[in-house]
């Protein structure tokens, strides 16, 4: 059977498992279908996007918001503005915000002290993630399991992000940067934390750091408007007007009527004359 046909069969099996409420099994089937298409070099972007979106729905049902967001972003990179991944990513972000806000409302800024401790990984298990000896072939397609945040670390990361947001409202950008940095140590796939920290760096006139954070955000979400705009602002301050204009052009392809971007573009055109 051709890889495309096998992938289609796996997708249908995944759909059936999803309808039966077997979300983990469905996610595994969608993942196998994606692996088949990748191995075969299949260039059907729409089919891959659907598989990523379907697997994202499984992660959302299981409460794994971070993986849902990543799969939705991958789906949207293949098919920009696809409705389902946009909707599912928004639902995942909203779920994370609600979860963290509930913890803050219940226990305040001391909520982390009331969480059960994160279990220590045994030394024997840690060895599984050590780099292979020189000369050994590395499987580039193997999942980086140890980088996936747990439910506990995701909650902590989002609470720290919200604390950072509160410091931003007060104009305390240095303290906000500290909170966002702590959050990203726990959860490196949270796009909003990078763009929030980039805003702080802009206010602190640390423009290179702002550019780095916006670039990290765009790796996660290639259509992130805030990341494009804030990176354009940082490039402008560094007098790299061409790069700034390129970012604004990318932003306006996503949101053609963005008034802030149009205004910045006018400023850049004057500076480039």
Summary, kept brief:
With 273 residues, the chain is mostly helical. It has helices at residues 3-19, 23-39, 45-61, 65-78, 83-107, 123-126, 151-169, 173-186, 191-203, 207-220, 225-237, 241-254, 259-272.
Describe this structure in words.
- This protein is an all-alpha fold.
- It has a domain at 1-92: Tetratricopeptide repeat domain (Serine Threonine Protein Phosphatase 5, Tetratricopeptide repeat), CATH 1.25.40.10.
- It has helices at residues 3-19, 23-39, 45-61, 65-78, 83-107, 123-126, 151-169, 173-186, 191-203, 207-220, 225-237, 241-254, 259-272.
- The chain starts with a helix and ends with a helix.
- The relative contact order is 0.07.
What fraction strand? under 5%
Reading the helices and strands in chain order gives HHHHHHHHHHHHH
At the fourth level of CATH, the homologous superfamily of one domain is Tetratricopeptide repeat domain
In the CATH hierarchy, the architecture of one domain is: Alpha Horseshoe
Classify the fold: give the CATH topology of one domain.
Answer: Serine Threonine Protein Phosphatase 5, Tetratricopeptide repeat
How many helices does DSSP assign?
A: 13
Unreliable segments of 5+ consecutive residues = 118-147
> What Rg is obtained from the alpha carbons, in whole angstroms?
21 Å
- Broad shape: flat
How would you sum up the major sheet? none
Q: Which structural category do the helix and sheet elements fall into?
A: mainly alpha
Number of strands: 0
Helix content percent band: over 70%
Mean pLDDT level: 81
What is the CATH first-level class name of one domain? Mainly Alpha
Distance between the termini: 60 Å
